[in-house]
Structure formats: C-alpha cells, structure tokens
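Tutorial sheet, problem 5. The three components below are modelled jointly, 470 residues in total.
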Amino acid sequence: MLQIQNQSLRPLTTAHLAQTMSLLTLPNLELRDRIMSELATNPALELVEERICPTCRRRLISGGPCPACARPEGEGPIVFLSSRDSSRSSRQTGQEESPLDREPVAPENLAAHVLEQLAADLSPEDRPLAAYILAGLDEDGFLQDHPAYIARATHSTLSQVTEVLDLIARADPPGLATTGPREALLAQLNLLGAENPNVLLARRMLAETFSELGRREFERISERLSIRVESVRQAAGFIRDNLNPYPARAFWGSGRQAQASDPNVYHNPDIQISFSPSATQGAIVVEVFAPVSGWLRVNPLFRQAMAQATEEHSAEWAQDLDRAALFVKCLQQRNNTMRRLMEILATNQHDFITRGDRHLQPLTRARLATQIGVHESTISRAVAHKSVALPDGRIVPLARFFDRSLSVRDRIKEIVHGEPRPLTDDEIAATLEREGIHVARRTIAKYRAMEGILPARLRHRKQAGAAARA
DNA sequence: CTATGGCACGGATT
DNA sequence: AATCCGTGCCATAG
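Model answer (structure tokens):
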C-alpha cells in the first residue's frame, strides 16, 4: 500500500521523505503555523472548508463517509481524524467548565481601548491592519489567524503585521494578540525590568519547561534547568501573582485571574480520547486533531490556469504546483501515520486508557513500528512532542504510552499510601517481588523520587507529600 | 549499622 | 550514534 502512495507522488525524492519526517515531528500547534505560512506563500495551495457529518455533527477533513458513523458501533476503539483544530478542544472538554462570569464583553470596547493607546505610535496606513487584528482576537485575547494569513487578508507585508502585533502586545492589557497563554506571559514578562531575578528565571521556565510549569512539576523543572527548587517555586509564584495568561480577561476586571494556573489550559492536546457517547462498555473514541479546520488540497483552478500559463511564469508555477502537491501528500501521510499509530495504541493500551496508570503495558516504539510496518524512527517522531487528552481529563504526553515504569510507580504509590508503618525501599522491593514484579532496591528509590514521595525516614507520621496531583 | 542518594556503567531504546 | 533507564557500588546521614 505504501507503493501505491509513492507512485502517485511524482517527485518521489529524499525531499519528500525529509518533509514528511519533519512534519511528523511537529505538534499540532506548530504544524498549524507551518501550514499557514505555506498557505500564505504558495498560491497553488488551497484550504477547503470543512464538512460536517450530518448525523454525528463532527467535522470531517476528507471526502468519504464519516468514519465515526460509518463504523458499526462495536467493540474496539474508533479512531478518526477530526478537523476540530486542537486549539479549541481543551476548552470544550475536561472540567474546564469555568463558571467564570465571562460577561460577553463587546470586543469593540477592547479594540477601541487599544486603538486609542496606539494612536500615537501607529502610522495611518497601519490603522486598519491593527483594527483587523484586534477584531480577530478570541475572547481570551489570543490571535486566531497566522500572521502570514493576516498579511494576505489585509494586503500588508509580514513585517508590518509583526510590527503591529508587537505594539499591541505592549499596550494596556499586556500580552494581547499573542498566540497563547505562554506567549502572552512571555510578552508581559518582556515589559518588566530585568532587575528582578525572578523575571529572568520565569522567562527560562516559560520558554523551556512550560508544560511542566502547567502541571506544577517544580522538582522536574528544577532538575531540567538545574535551579534550586525553592527558586523555581518563587518564580512560579511570581508568574502567578504578576502575570496573566489570559490578557483579555484581565482587562475586564472580573478576570481576577481566576485559576491562572489550571494545569490543563496551558497545554492543548493533539489527540483526544473519550468514552463513546453511546456507552457500550468501555468503547472509546480517539480523535486525532487536525492542525487547522478544513482540509488542504492543490487548488484545481491553479492547475487549470497552468495550461495557459505564459512561458515566463510556467516554470515558477510548476514549482509552486509541485511544492503544493508535495506538501499535501506529506500531510496526508502524517495523518495516516498518526491514525494508524493511535489505532494500535488505543487497542493495545485500552486498559490503561480506561482504568488508569496501573494497567499500562510495557510497549516499545520499535515493536509498534514492526506492527504497522514503518521504521521505528517514524514512530519516534510521531510520538515526540505530542500530547493526548485522556477520558478522565488528564492531558499527558503521548510518550507516556511507552513509559516502562509507570505501572510500577503507580503500584508503589498505592503501597506507600496503604501501609501504616513507613516501609523502606528494600521492603517495598520485597513486596513487589512477591507480586511478581522484580525491581532493584535502588530503582525503587528512583521511582519514589519521580513521584515526589519522601524517603521512609521522613514520612514517619503522616506522609503529607501531596505533590502535584489531580 | 541501615537506609538513601550520587556517580557511573552497560544494555536497551530511540 | 545518541540517549535513556535500571542497577551496582560506595559514601554519608541518621
């Protein structure tokens, strides 16, 4: 089947492979940027509106029947591609009910407020551009469209757009018109003087360990950056107290920055696994989010126009056409790989998904690779930098599906929780041995550390080692 | 003397 | 080829 795909692709070259690989590695949000800039620079590419399945109302990205509905609802996972783009998903799912009294503020007010401030710095011809940008922000104050897309829509240059974006980000609700909570926080940070040592560390934490920060894994951050845990906590507190991940909410006073550090809102999943609505015992639905809503194809009109292209342009156009075809092909391949990957993963790790960490089965990328007949490095790339939302609301890295020790660590947590007398690592090892799990004493110590469990000596009375959980 | 954590090594994984 | 992970050895804290 691979041959068929390859045949249909004219410039079957190393470039093709290289691009497929690099796209595979990208998480959805970054892929989205890639697609947008490609879209903005290549006239042969076209973004087609999404279709909505008439029965289940899910959006589809390619032709053919809706995979969710067409499939007879049996046992086994249902895996399909969803064109809901992932930036929205975390909001619709999980416990993010957020009774936040989000008064439906008229966005015009915010836009006007910002425009007023910018009046002095803004050249007249950039005014409409700024207005366009402000109008396109979502209710949290984030940028919806890729800069390149905006440039095209407003007939501006990319540098103009970025310039104006920068101005807006410095205006009163600071961090406005950024692409997400992280960028908003960073923008706000840049406005603060660097005299505070927290600022420096905070910037590093945001840049390098953002998802860990969202999950409040301070120990891990401290490890990664080789900074004392205390400093990390301090910087995290600084971020919480002085910055706001949702600039628009802050502006409307009511914001009170609610729960500024909800672990889940920071991180948008690339994949979502949920229980099937028609709950047939444990049936699950796996959605592989598309990076953009709608789907990409080579613009048929462009292809048509190729016919009567003048010679001076034809070479250039042909190049665009090839580029577009290649890009589309690569994306399809990426989708295909992700889908097959998740299908196997969901089947194989069904118990882990539905019943929790304990039931994670040891599985290596290499084994999986032979199962679906691709090179192991392909799997590595597919798994890297992706995150998945589990039915229980947790958002975890996809790599967790390959964690060799997760189930054992989970068991250790339980043992420690259950035993009245603090057990030493040796005793824990013995307990596990009795259950048929063989791990060295030294390894127990490491697992304990990973889970933030104190050594036996220190959890004498009550182990209140309530690390980041939930 | 016992329980732990640091360092480092070899084998597995990516 | 580079990286990760489990483990053994040894120093040290209690």
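Marking note: The longest strand of chain A covers residues 78-85. Full credit if you identified this.
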